[in-house]
Design a protein that fits this description.
The complex is a heterodimer of chains A (about 100) and B (about 190).
Chain A (H helix, E strand, L loop, with lengths): L2 H22 L3 H25 L3 H33 L13
Chain B lengths: L1 H18 L3 H22 L2 H26 L12 H19 L14 H8 L1 H22 L8 H4 L12 H16 L1
Helix pairs in contact in B: 1-2, 2-3, 5-6
Classes of the chains: A mainly alpha (about 100), B mainly alpha (about 190).
């Protein structure tokens, strides 16, 4: 098993774990943690794809952009979670829905 | 063998981060995932991204999570899943199989490419990405400031338009503002 196969497998597994967390978890901060895990998998996949195509620096450049964007998403999401906790008293995403049908 | 061990450790940390009910412990497991992924990236030859991942992913983001959890408070109750667990596992398995099928052609030999250095790629060839990162950072700062800003009481414009000497003592400011607005409407009509 070459390092590239390990990286591709790791990317898939981390993506799967993060996707399961996004689907199943109800705590807002845990949802952001699941999103972070997914992004770790995508960073691995980008670098592996760059290495496979012989352009690892291009993959690194895209991965850096992804890391910056992901950090901004985490910061804004955590600020939202803090405000939601102050306003609603809970981090449960089910209780945030104000639409009643 | 080292890569496989690191990958298994990273997957274990990720599963623990999802499973543990305590938010602070989940943030620590996430930092472990970041550190192990950074080592994997270093072994792949992506040294710059490994350093950035270690400092930002395992350092800055973990500090942010600990800060946010200390502000929001810890919730350790285990909530039932939004969608049934077998359905979630089935969806995840289908997605991963589809992605694995798309990744299957990676067995082809690496293409020989004449590649620029990392600095040239980031600052010259992908300079639009760098500009987008700067814009994103400013947008994120403004977004956080807007989200965390305290609410201020809204002042009624009709009250400000009336001088204090014009208002009779027995009328409330809201009534004065209403009279001013209605007189303005009559003038327009």
């Amino acid at each position: 098993m070459t390092p590239l196969h390990v990286a591709a497998t790791g990317a898939l597994v981390l993506l799967g774990i993060g996707l399961y967390g996004l689907l199943a978890l109800r705590n807002l901060i845990k949802v952001i943690i699941a999103l972070q895990i997914m992004v770790k998998g995508v960073v691995l996949a980008l670098v592996a794809a760059g290495s496979i195509s012989g352009q690892i620096n291009l993959g690194q450049s895209l991965a850096v952009t992804l890391i910056v964007a992901d950090t901004i998403v985490a910061v804004v999401g955590l600020a939202l979670a803090v405000q939601v906790r102050r306003r609603f008293g809970s981090l449960d995403v089910q209780e945030l829905s104000t639409l009643r049908g | 063998m080292l890569q496989v061990s690191l990958l298994i450790a990273a997957v274990f940390c990720a599963i623990q981060a999802i499973r543990t009910p305590r938010l602070l412990v989940a943030a620590i497991w996430l930092a472990g995932v970041s550190a192990l992924v950074a080592v994997l990236l270093y072994l792949l030859g992506a040294h710059e991204v490994a350093v950035i991942e270690l400092s930002v992913g395992a350092g800055l983001v973990t500090v942010l999570f600990v800060f946010a959890i200390s502000l929001a408070g810890e919730e350790t109750t285990r909530l039932p899943a939004i969608i049934p667990r077998p359905l979630a596992i089935g969806l995840v398995a289908a997605s991963i199989l589809l992605l694995a099928w798309m990744l299957a052609p990676t067995d082809s030999p690496p293409a020989a490419a004449d590649e620029s250095s990392f600095t040239v790629v980031v600052w010259q060839e992908r300079s639009a990405d760098t500009l987008a990162q700067i814009v994103l950072i400013f947008a994120g700062v403004l977004g956080v400031l807007g989200i965390l800003a305290e609410e201020r009481p809204v002042e009624k414009p009709g009250v400000e338009a009336v001088q204090p000497g014009d208002a009779p003592a027995d009328k409330l400011p809201e009534q004065v503002g209403f009279e001013v607005e209605s007189s303005l409407e009559r003038e327009h009509a």
